[in-house]
Design goal:
Radius of gyration: 37 Å
Strand order of the largest sheet: 2-1-4-5-3-6-7-10
Number of strands: 12
Number of helices: 19
Shape: elongated
Low-confidence stretches: 1-6, 69-76, 160-170, 594-601
Mean pLDDT: 81
Structural class: alpha/beta
Strand content: 5-15%
């Protein structure tokens, strides 16, 4: 389990309802969320006020107290509150609980505000729990009327033009691609669960009540509308029925010990908790699991969109991806630079060693980027990362070159100092002075190479530059030496030129050989990093394909149910949606390989 830097150990307000009625994100809580590096399982709950929502959420956290409970007619929770714990059954994951303010609060009396809260609770969740009082039947289903309004308040993409990630055109036909599991919690339920005299489970009874009727009468259309939306938007549904928690009038549940609760109530509450722990998946977008930081980005994006108008699912996802990719790019570049500084012991004497270190650090940076990047199929952000790392690489090469050059120049200046003093004192302006000067300069070269070893070899061009800078001085000594004839001077000058040309030729060949070695290492690193990218893209494609296939399977089940109920036109529409998903899945598979280069150097 990662360090719990982001664990929110007590309930805090995540989304506030301001005095003007607008929703606003609590920035400090969002920052805490961003510290959660593990994946998040998000459970939200909504429902009419004073129906015991907070009690269920406290149970999910393993506590009797936490989220505020109320026994009066006043709604206790305002806005959306959050509580986080390590997931009790999923290693390295976190359970994020979102408790929403009660719907239908007479003090608030704002249906639009209720719809905004519901939109957030649904869009943010892995599992959305709707908590009501009553029985399973038409009345209970009618209490879900808000679901028919979701298409007015949520859109998949801005303008609804063109295809979205699910491959379909239109709006609410693709809600199931993004919506969470639906859990219906019915409180104070006292009837027997029977259909035609046969005992059934609460899930079976729920599905029975969602059966639609044929006919064109207004009351039939109204009857079917809610059921159609529930079945279309929430492909995975679960139902729990809770008897009253205690005999007689219920007090505050946080003041009631477990042994005071009725056994059947405790049993159903335990079943509810076990289901959420065991069946609720990690929050995903198109098959990609979300971390705390990604989830925090979604909270900000959705809340801002709702505050200013309509939430567009894919726009919010794109905003999250841009932020996540930008952070991934920056973190990868910072990791690369830090690893290089830690690994390199400047001066690095072999270019091949420098290149090998670069390859290792680059691979780690790319691994980090790929683990955090989202939907970067065109490698836009990876190319930006590569460009930044290339700048850092050149900076480090120049830093090493400067350090090596300075070391060499310091050594040469120190060795040259006695020669300079002799030159100042006129020791070489005597007969035979040129020979003395050449002997001293030869000793300087030998000592320099001996003292600096491989550094002198690497930076041989610094010695050549130094010797070239002494050419005027050497020529002057040569011309002033009376022991050297004109012919000898001419031969010496020719010899010097030949030596210098040979040295430069050898240095060029050495550099070419080193460059070839570096190119071979770079090709190996490039191939390895291409393999990393391909592996990552295959993993992402597999996760996306699984999401597509699960959605298609659920739509196929619904299509068959529609046919069995006599709704052929609706079944044909569902068939078209399945075909659109299949087409998008084919495109997804064609895009499973990277296009263009993925690494630098």
């Amino acid at each position: 389990m990662a360090p719990d830097l982001g664990i929110i150990r007590e309930p805090k307000c995540l989304v506030e309802t301001g005095s003007d009625g607008n929703l606003a994100v609590n920035g400090s809580v969002v920052e805490e969320l961003k510290n959660i590096e593990g994946h998040v399982v998000v459970v939200s709950i909504a429902g009419p006020y004073r129906t015991g929502k907070s009690f269920l959420m406290n149970k999910l956290h393993g506590q009797n107290k936490g989220f505020t409970l109320g026994s009066t007619v006043q709604s206790q929770t305002k806005g959306i509150w959050i509580w986080v714990r390590e997931h009790p059954r999923q290693k390295d994951n976190y359970l994020v609980l979102l408790d929403t303010e009660g719907l239908g609060d007479v003090e608030k009396g704002d249906e639009n505000h209720d719809n905004q809260i519901l939109c957030l609770a649904i869009l943010l969740a892995s599992a959305f729990v709707y908590n009501v009082m009553g029985v399973i039947g038409n009345d209970a289903i009618q209490k879900l009327h808000f679901i028919t309004e979701l298409a007015k308040h949520i859109q998949v993409r801005s303008g609804d033009c063109g295809e979205n990630r699910s491959g379909s055109k239109g709006n609410d036909s693709d809600f199931d691609f993004y919506f969470p599991d639906f859990v219906y919690a019915i409180r104070d339920f006292t009837l027997e669960l029977e259909i035609n005299g046969h005992e059934v489970t609460s899930d079976e009874y729920l599905e029975h009540t969602l059966t639609m009727k044929t006919g064109d009468r207004p009351e039939v259309k109204n009857f079917n509308k809610i059921r159609s939306c529930i079945r279309k938007y929430f492909r995975h549904r679960k139902c729990f029925t809770f008897i009253p928690p205690v005999a007689g009038k219920c007090r505050r549940l946080d003041e009631v010990s477990d042994d005071q609760l009725l056994p059947d109530f405790r049993q159903e509450a335990e079943a509810f908790v076990n289901y959420i722990y065991g069946q609720t998946p990690v929050k995903k977008i198109t098959g990609r699991k979300l971390t705390g930081r990604m989830f925090a980005s979604l909270v900000e994006a959705y809340t801002e969109q709702i505050r200013t108008g309509t939430p567009y699912v894919e726009n919010a996802v794109d905003a999250m991806a841009r932020l996540e990719n930008s952070n991934a790019k920056q973190e990868a570049a910072e990791l690369y630079y830090g690893l290089m500084l830690d690994s390199l012991n400047m001066p690095v004497l072999e270019d091949a060693d420098f290149s090998r270190c670069h390859s290792v650090c680059l691979a780690k940076a790319i691994d980090l980027f790929l683990s955090k990047a989202l939907f970067d199929q065109n490698q836009v952000y990876q190319r930006q990362m590569n460009e930044e790392i290339e700048k850092q690489y050149k900076e480090l090469v120049n830093m090493n070159e400067t350090y090596c050059r300075e070391r060499c120049q310091e050594a040469l200046n120190e060795l040259y100092e006695p020669i300079r003093k002799k030159l100042t004192d006129g020791k070489y302006t005597i007969s035979g002075g040129f020979g003395l000067y050449k002997n001293d300069m030869t000793k300087l070269e030998d000592t320099y190479r001996q003292n600096l070893g491989r550094l002198a070899t690497k930076m041989h061009h610094v010695l050549l530059e130094f010797l070239h800078s002494r050419r005027t001085e050497e020529d002057a000594i040569l011309r002033s030496d009376e022991m050297v004839t004109a012919k000898e001077r001419e031969r010496e000058l020719e010899r010097q030129k030949a030596v210098e040309m040979e040295q430069r030729k050898n240095e060029a060949e050495r550099q070419a050989e080193l460059q070839q070695q570096m190119l071979e290492q770079q090709k190996l690193a490039h191939d390895q990093n291409i393999a990393r990218l391909e592996t990552k893209m295959r993993e992402d494609a597999a996760a996306a394909e699984k999401h597509y296939e699960e959605t298609m399977d659920k739509r196929l089940t619904e299509m068959q149910r529609l046919l069995s109920e006599g709704f052929e036109r609706d079944a044909d529409a569902m068939k078209a949606q399945i075909a659109a998903l299949q087409n998008q899945l084919s495109q997804q598979r064609n895009q499973s390989r990277p296009r263009g280069g993925c690494t630098i150097l």
